[in-house]
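ingest -> validate -> predict -> emit
validate: passed (alphabet ok, no gaps, 180 aa)
predict: started
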Amino acid sequence: MMPHRSEKQKMLASDLYLASDPELQHDMAQCAQWLARYNNRNGNLSERLGEVGENTCIRPPFHCDYGYNIFLGNNVFLNFNCIVLDVVSVRIGDGTQIGPGVQILTADHPRDPELRQKMLEFGRPITIGKNVWIGGGAIILPGITIGDNAIIGAGSVVTHDVASGVTVAGNPARPLHAGL
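emit:
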């Protein structure tokens, strides 16, 4: 017989879970308190985030679900109004620069309407490599991997993985041809 798993354990394993679970609601409330302090410049990143590299900067206001699933390398920069829905891990490599209003979304919902009606959701991790540049207003969807040295154009919606060194733009984001 499988041991009982908490909703938080299910969430962290990318399985279906109930976001309304009291433990998760408590975690989100704690994160909201930290965000209020941080966004008013009375808190620091290492209080809540999973890992924060040297010389890393997030300009407030910043928004996330839990914080503890966010892992930032050295010299990472997130500009104003970034949103990270971190129900599972978000890993951002050294030297990555992220423009204002970018959304990094690990949270997802079942395609089956009966499961959605039960308010179940799940997450798929996002990995962003080293020295990536993500333009303002871009949206990174659940489960995406962006390779080192890639560029994501402003306003792009990234629906598929982006290979190292590739520049993509648009909705959905597509590789740009050389010389553009």
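Residues 92 and 128 are 5 Å apart (CA to CA).
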